[in-house]
């Protein structure tokens, strides 16, 4: 099969697809990843074909307007800005998608690409699967959407998902129908998610069933597979993931450090976080490994207990740390728990607060919203993360995640789904049957 994977966003939105592409390639399929132009070197470093989409994700985050929005720490403003950028660049963006999709036979897409990808897939009559690395947005009676978890009873729970889908449709309706008209397709009267769902498109949540169980009232095309992970040996061989000698020396010459990193999640109020880091260094003897990622941190302090890097190889470095402090992206969460690392989630927007709440419910760490974080709160959270209860819980969950075979499950489900349109006997699916509770 000739399969195209389409994603638009941060490195956290991309990296699980690297694992999926490698898994599909190992089964003999031809796979191309399409993402913004700035990810070309990263993707091709894994010997995966890359087809660029218009735009630069890091540049969008660090533009003057992007920085202004990030400093507000307002998730609604950030979402509006994201959709505004997509709207303003819609013509070259659509052309780049159309070119990429025209070169493949099957499509795997993430949620943010759906307004364009689903339109082209329908026009070109190509089968599409959707994959997510976030808590489910499929309606269920069993639990509410994370942002609306004020109550928990069946009709309210289902309503919360309808509300979220309505918000999404409000943001993308005009551009979606404009493009459908341009390609000669009928205008959608219902929301896009409902339209796609009626086609029984494979809807695969690549998250751990040990953290969120698969609802019993889902239809069969909605599934939870387990996290997708790039194999450690493959990561070690990537030119961008090699550990610098100076970092290895620093790690070996002292106690286990605290990892702090927000990756490609933009931090606007950098002054606040610099002040917090300084205060933690002054008030404790903790060592800090700080990864700046995409954020523009200036005037970070020089200190023997502070090592600063743009990125590190999480698979290699996190096992050498005592606790992970991060924004709550699912991929980083998976890596930390898989390596038995307690977590402190400093959430900013989208699904991050939900992961923070799950972590606290399961006593795997602590959740602090970014707006409320202070040095004293962070120091208290670090101390709490080192209790035996949290460490034991993390070890238990870590073992479950290591046993889930998430990549194997996802590859089998996708092969099965796409093979049905080719009359090819499907491979056996290995989805883990036992699901644990939500919270």
Question: How is this structure best described in words?
Answer:
The chain has helices at residues 11-26, 40-44, 57-61, 64-72, 75-88, 90-101, 114-124, 154-182, 192-197, 232-237, 245-252, 270-283, 314-317, 330-338, 352-361, 375-385, 388-402, 406-419; strands at 2-6, 30-36, 49-53, 106-109, 127-132, 203-205, 222-224, 258-261, 288-291, 306-309, 323-326, 343-347, 365-369. The protein has 439 residues and is an alpha/beta fold. The protein has two domains: 2-54 and 89-227 and 404-419, 3-Layer(aba) Sandwich (Rossmann fold), CATH 3.40.50.2000; 238-401, Glycogen Phosphorylase B (Rossmann fold, 3-Layer(aba) Sandwich). The protein has a seven-stranded parallel sheet with strand order 3-2-1-4-5-6-7, with helices on both faces. A six-stranded parallel sheet has the order 10-9-8-11-12-13, sandwiched between helices. Helix 1 links the parallel strand 1 and strand 2. Helix 1 crosses helix 18 (406-419). The longest helix has 29 residues, at 154-182. It is globular, with a radius of gyration of 21 Å.
